[in-house]
Amino acid sequence: QVQLVESGGGLVQPGGSLRLSCAASGIIFRFYAMGWYCQAPGKQRELVAAITSDGSTNYADSVKGRFTISRDNAKNTVVLQMNSLKPEDTAVYYCNAVFGVRHYWGQGTQVTVSS
C-alpha cells in the first residue's frame, strides 16, 4: 500500500519559516519524481516545487528564492523548506509522487501565515 505522509505544517507569522516533510512508503522512492503542491480555499491545486529522481528542481515563480525542495533517497523523504513566508502562502500543502503512469498524493498539511 502506497502512503505519502506529510508533516510540519502549522501557523507562522509573516517572515517566518516552516519545514514540511513527506515520508513515502510502498514505492521504490528513488525512481519517483516528487513534488509539493498547494491549494488555497476556492483555488485550484498548483505546483509549488518539484524534484526529479536525479535531483533536478523546479519552482513556481512565486516561491523562487524563498523555498527549497530536497530529497533523501535513503530515508524515502522529501522536504520543503519554506522561508520568508507570506500570507498568500496560506494553503493546504500536498506531497506528490510520480513515476510514469503511477501518481500518488498525500493527505495534505495546513500552512497558515498570519500575524
Structure report:
The protein has strands spanning 3-7, 10-12, 18-25, 33-39, 46-51, 57-59, 67-72, 77-82, 91-99, 102-105, 109-113. β5 (46-51) and β6 form a beta hairpin. It starts with a strand and ends with a strand. It contains no helices and eleven strands. It is mostly beta strands and 115 residues long.
Descriptive terms for the model:
four-stranded antiparallel beta sheet; 115 residues; globular; seven-stranded mixed beta sheet
Compact description:
It contains no helices and eleven strands. With 115 residues, the protein is mostly beta strands.
Strand content: over 45%
Helical percentage: under 10%
Distance between the termini: 40 Å
Given helix and strand content, the structural type is mainly beta
Please provide the count of β strands.
Answer: 11
The main β sheet shows up as: 7 strands, mixed
Number of helices: 0
The averaged pLDDT comes out at 97
Q: Which ranges are low-confidence, i.e. pLDDT below 50, for 5 or more consecutive residues?
A: none
Q: Give Rg in angstroms.
A: 13 Å
**Helix and strand succession?**
EEEEEEEEEEE
Coarse morphology: globular
